[in-house]
Design a protein that fits this description.
Elements (H helix, E strand, L loop, with lengths): L2 H29 L5 E6 L6 H9 L5 H7 L15 E5 L17 H18 L6 H4 L6 H23 L7 H10 L20 H6 L12 H13 L7 H4 L2
Antiparallel strand pairs: 1-2
Helix pairs in contact: 2-3, 4-6
């Protein structure tokens, strides 16, 4: 090859190298993931934060990491929606604490029932008003029958429990209640499973339920035990059987 041609080719190659180097750096940068982000995950039916944590971190108890990383779009830890796209951060050295409340409380639902029971108390004790007429000479008779008027008020809490129905506030919760109890918070089936979610006595206590309240627990207490179960990855107690 002619010497001048060789020199010209070498100059061209040297001029091209910075451009090629810059292109390679830009391609590498485009493939670099966002700092601190392990993956993005689209929520599917039946998912829970603990189940997603088990999948990515191999530990269901690490679910608060995902909750706090997506707190802008997740209000309650036990309520995530199908189709949501969640950020899955790299597992930190220190796991953050779980939120104090995992889901909405249902306590206000039972309040109208208590009030209604108290309103009927005067009607139940109405016949006692005729006592003064029958025992007019003994004016102390009304005093003796006065305690009978308070009897309905003492039993009002017991009347409120059987009457309390609840249908749930989230898609998964509503599906499970519909399949298990139809919304009757006090139903007990033949195998000893009880309440809105048909807990067995052992499962009830395992997720924080009081042994003494099993069989007559309020809607609020049943929801608390359910929320504990979901947060601990216990959705599998229902989803394989209820199709939720």
């Amino acid at each position: 090859m002619h010497p001048s041609k060789t020199t010209h080719a070498a100059v061209q190659q040297t001029a091209q190298r910075p451009t090629e180097l810059l292109s390679a750096l830009m391609r590498a940068k485009a493939k670099t993931p966002e700092s601190g982000l392990l993956a993005s995950y689209k929520v599917r039916s039946g998912d829970s934060l603990s189940a997603i944590a088990q999948h990515f971190y191999h530990s269901s108890s690490v679910w608060p990491v995902i909750f706090w990383a997506n707190h802008g779009q997740i209000r309650w830890a036990n309520e995530i929606s199908t189709g949501q796209v969640l950020r899955i951060p790299v597992k930190p050295t220190k796991i953050p604490a779980a939120p104090k409340q995992l889901g909405p409380t249902a306590a206000p639902v039972a309040a109208p029932t208590h009030v209604a029971a108290a309103q009927y108390a005067p009607v139940q004790s109405a016949p006692a008003q005729s006592a003064p007429v029958q025992s007019a000479p003994a004016q102390s008779a009304p005093v003796e029958s006065a305690p009978a008027q308070y009897a309905p008020a003492q039993s009002a809490p017991a009347q409120a429990v059987p009457a309390a129905n609840y249908s749930g506030s989230s898609g998964l919760q509503q599906c499970i209640i519909s399949r298990e109890s139809g919304g009757n918070s006090q139903v007990m089936n033949g195998s000893g499973h009880y309440g809105l979610y048909q807990f067995s006595a052992s499962t009830w206590q395992a997720y924080g339920g009081s042994a003494g309240s099993f069989g007559n627990a309020s809607v609020a207490e049943q929801n608390t035990v359910f929320n504990n179960a979901i947060a601990a990855g216990g959705a599998s107690n229902w989803t394989p059987y209820d199709g939720c």
